[in-house]
What we know:
CATH class of the largest domain in chain A: Mainly Alpha
Mean pLDDT of chain B: 89
CATH architecture of the largest domain in chain A: Orthogonal Bundle
Distance between the termini of chain A: 27 Å
Oligomer: heterodimer
Shape of chain B: elongated
Amino acid sequence: MTAPDGRAVVEAREGDGAALRIHGAAIGDRIYSSAITFFALCVPLLLLAIAWEIGVAGWPTLHKFGFGFLTSSEWDPVKGEFGAAPAIYGTIVSSIIALVLATPLAIGVSLFLSELAPRWLRQPVGFLVDLLAAIPSVVYGLWGIFVLLPVLRDPVMPFLRDTLHLGKTGLFTGPAYGPSMLAAGIILAIMVLPYIASVSREVLLAVPRSQREAALALGATRWEAIWGAVLPYARSGIVGGVILGLGRALGETMAVTMLIGNRPEIAASLFAPGYTMASLLANEFSEASSDAHLSALMAVAFVLFVITLIVNAIARWLVWQVSRNSSGKTA
Amino acid sequence: MLAVASALAGTFAGNLMAQDLNGAGATFPYPIYSKWFADYATSSGVKINYQSIGSGGGIRQLTEGTVDFGASDAPMSDAEMAKLKSPVLHFPTVLGAVVITYNIPGVTKAIKLTGPVVADIFAGKITKWNDEKIASLNKGLKLPASDILVVHRSDGSGTTYIFSDYLSSVSPSWAQAPGKGKELAWPVGLGGKGNEGVAGQVKQTPGAIGYVELAYAKQNSLPFADLQNANGEFVTPTIESVTTAAAAASAKLPENTDYRISIVNAAGKGAYPISSFTFLLVYQTQPDAAKGKKLVDFLRWYLRNGEKTAASLDYAPLPASMVAQLEKRLGTIQMASR
Lengths: 331, 338
């Protein structure tokens, strides 16, 4: 995020140095450079201001419950007991389900569009996939309630549990009510799919023709060329797309709130209802009136903020690792 | 020239300021309030702005003095009152009720429930529809042996407050835990967002039970249970039985009541037990005399004219005896002297 901005600042300064020699351009350059610097600083300052504001508001709760706020499962606004563990767990698990389901699908779609699809099919299918990103979250939620949940309740959940005997794994047990971690994960998968697919497709299209031709010339089949030459080249870009999808999944609020069942409990089964941090905030913020409750919600917001930050940091590191490895290989 | 311009600007700004009253709060009475404000604007020319941001937000904004009046489904707590800079009066406007809706395959007639049985169902102590406690109330109905799925509100709401207030008053163990509040630590069940979230989940799941506002249930033709009241009668929730509950409760009020009262489980013939007022919150000493007068005028208007239109939007009007008491109470609102 800051890398392109940071680069812009450096370039402006270099321009500034050159301008010393050409007197006339100096003022214009200086205004330009300070304006750009200002814009570049605005974003991180805003981020810091938000973090500070949320942190200060949530501090009484974090101070009172300490580390227990992250590990306790009790969320009782009446008694003033607050523990965010189920919401943290739900946020992470629903996002993981979303990525597990969406990533292979998205890579498949983008490979099809970039490598296999006839030219006339590329545009319309690509357009439709992108269109998924334009649907408002509440519409996904409503669709989930009226279409996805009934289908999950019968036949999908009983099929997974009884016919495939996946109940024994512990992940697919319990009564099939519909609203569940699984439902939230599936709706999130659909929502993040266009982000991953769109980025992956662009990255795959950017792989040089010579890469494919070289593999084919060595006698590789089409599949081997894609697997061995195209995908490794595009790997860091695809990982970047997945991270973008993850960011979206972590923060998604409305659709998840409508489908996850909103129960602050940690359950191993994906059929059980759960909770996410974003849903918790959306549900309780408007009617929270006691100071302790408001502070607890702010603390949840702060934790969500920190987790997002950590996830993004890990993701950046991953992208950096992957791109370093693949560039090392190709060089 | 300049003087004229500034005078003009002054009257213009004065008009704008004086015309508008701003309020914020509860979402439950929003439909009837917006009808009242529209009707009142036509009849008096005074425009009233209302943001339905939720009772909690309304109380916060009133406390901070950013609105001229607040609105809340639950009366303000003592802790909330303590934060105020000057005293606030509660004016009940209309009544709402919470009904128990359900989806029992094969049952089309209204089922009968008592408060303690409802509390046991929502506490997860009664788990089957053919439980002896339910069956004995509904002789002649064939209740299935299926599991009960409890559905509650996931978002903080006055509806949950009224419902849990009722359960706390009929069940000592419910009063212990989870207690009453706009959000609870529910012992069992799924959370649905809003009336529509609960109703949708109940409609779709055989064996489900949930609670929604009476107005919402009526407008969406949901089935709802007859509930036993403090007199031992089974009462169908209707606008009349809700107003009856208010009349029964208000008849016992002392002369100097602040109206921060709960009327759940009211003892009165034909009174529906999960009924509640919704309130407008008004500073007793109005900081701005011009606005204060307009506000008092509006309050008088809703008591005299507004109540008549409440039932058209499925809200229960106040009983006539209370309207007279409240009108007298308008006299206690003072204007700050500048």
